[in-house]
Amino acid sequence: MAKSKGAPRQKTVGKLPSRQEILDFLATASKEAGKREIARAFGIKGGDRIALKDMLRAMADDGLIAGSRRKLTRPGVLPPVTVIEIAGRDADGEFIARPAVWDEEHGPAPRIVMAESKREAGPVVGIGDRVLARITASAPDADCPYQARTIKRLARAARSLLGIFRALPGGTGVIDPVDRKQLREWPVARGGTGDAEPGELVRFEIAQASRIGVQTARVTERLGNPQAQQTTSLIAVHAHGIPDRFPEAALAEAAEAKEPDLKRREDLRHLPLVTIDPSDARDHDDAVWAEADPNPANRGGWVVIVAIADVASYVRPGSELDKEAMKRGNSVYFPDRVVPMLPERISNDLCSLVENEPRPCFAVRMVFDKNGRKLGHRFFRAVMRSAASLTYEQAQGAIDGRLDEMTGPLLDTVLRPLWGAYASLMLARTERGPLELDLPERKILLDDEGRVRGVATPPRLDAHRLIEEFMISANVAAAETLEAKRSPLIYRVHDSPSKEKLAALSEFLTTIGLKLPKSGTLKPVQFNRVLADTRATPTAELVGEVILRSQAQAEYAVGNFGHFGLNLRRYAHFTSPIRRYADLIVHRALARALGMGNDGLTDTEMGELEQVAGHISDTERRAMAAERETADRLIAAYLADRIGAKFQARVSGLVRTGLFVRLVETGADGFVPASSIGQEYFVHDEVRHALVGEDTGLAYRLGDPVEVRLVEAIPTAGALRFEMLSEGRSLGPRPKGAARPSDREKAKRYKGKPRRQGRGGSRKRR
Question: Do 19-73 and 643-761 share a fold?
Fold first, then answer.
């Protein structure tokens, strides 16, 4: 039985502990602790256990604790500044909010009470509003664990009540929601269609004719047809409130933008800088050049120049372009289109480092020794002319001996020096030991009408790695320069894995005979050793998935706690100001700190960096979710005519109600309900990352190869449902201490459910 060292024990038997006492107990418990351990620690018996259960449920609802009744923990905590959504009011009339982004692995999202703003009179926010807020923790016994004060009210994001309209006879219709979590039809009464055309994406509201009447939908806005050419992403754009139309004032500024004075800049036009990008790139914001260091004191060393589009010279602080770029935070890349951070006049023309055209740039000259260690660097504003716009495949082909008309003349003077510098940088990278997760990315290929014609996994080339290493070095140099000048900046940070996730990872690795060090601070190299040990084994993909899930999410912050994945002490984004607002801020900070013009960071901006960092972290997560959902919708449409087909897949996720699979052929994700697997009840074994048959012990584990049959495809929601065809496999005995369902729990699970005969006379879960 789990006991705890130093855990508080209530002296008065039967008296309920306070919330703070429960939190203190969970923090000091040496082993897993749940309701039973809490009751024992505080001497709670008999009927008081029901009151304790209600108390724990209330604490979970408020976000103070998370987990199961056998294992309760403190959930993830909110950052000091974040975006929240006003969800309603409490009994006292106070606004209650929840985080706009929340990892459900931490349990239910915490409730946040809004504190009145001292800077503005009257109500600052209303239900449904999104605000950038400053967060403080409440007393543990408070109804809400957090308080929030509004920093800035954000544009409302319409995240719900979106659907596809279908017309029916008699002037009525039906709306199919696009949220896969709410897959139900909404009838539309006559007069409520809003003149929507069949197949259109619409925003709608729910109306109810009477207290006992059937709920119906009323179309409030027509948003276009997502089935039209290259507009599948329209659903995600509106579902996540992504701004996709530039205000007239911002477009007017872009149209009137003029090239800065190039005479006061260093002239790099004599150097053959080149851009190396994907074949479908629409803009080019970074160029590179390298040569062997002519300094005899640095024999075998290299000089590298990374030149970046000088967006700051066109997008000034406080301008309409700047306001819109800040609002968007970043560009969003869909298979069918791009929603850019800046208008095309800026991103695809004035700031794009197109071939043979003079362009202003912000450059850094770096000197490396033969082992790739940086000896020094210098930032400066310059004018450059790209000698060539190459694709990754072109550059790699030239190095591999496949020359063309463009790369032939560049091989000896441009490309080989670049690869020579890259070889040295790779020596330093190996010594540094960043996290080496090999995660192939799928690329959805579309035809001229915006339909999926295939899914490819492009090979990972040295050309990709070369540009990546040069950009990392430039980003590190930017952070170092701003720190040396004592300038505020926005760091790109990546925290180390949490203790809870490390504990779960360690438990899992133990089940396959591997171990993580128990003492000291873990470094990426220790994860790399585990990956290397399993690379040639059947568990390689499984181990990679679990290690990936143990990692924290990278974000932007004004406080520096390093970048765990890259194993760097300081890191800032400098190399993509066309598509990331963080990089534009770093450019302005460098311009101010180094006295390079009057377009640097302003005093006002310097005082708002914390809020900006929180906002652009949220817009980045918003973009990732929208991009993922659009890919899912396109793939679901691609597979919709293959109902009944069999596919090879791997188990990519597990929940109590079933398992997720990822198809080998397309990378598509789908769900297999536990109720459709076999003839027994399946238990989610969190330690071994598996669904285990309660009677047979046969299991499906994260990463397992399986065969599935497609049962249902819903393209508008990006939802795929499969049937499991593969048998589970034996995992051996349960790990020592693993929880088993009690007879009482089994009886509760099966109450009212018919007995089904199958393997061993087991029962099928419904």
Answer: no
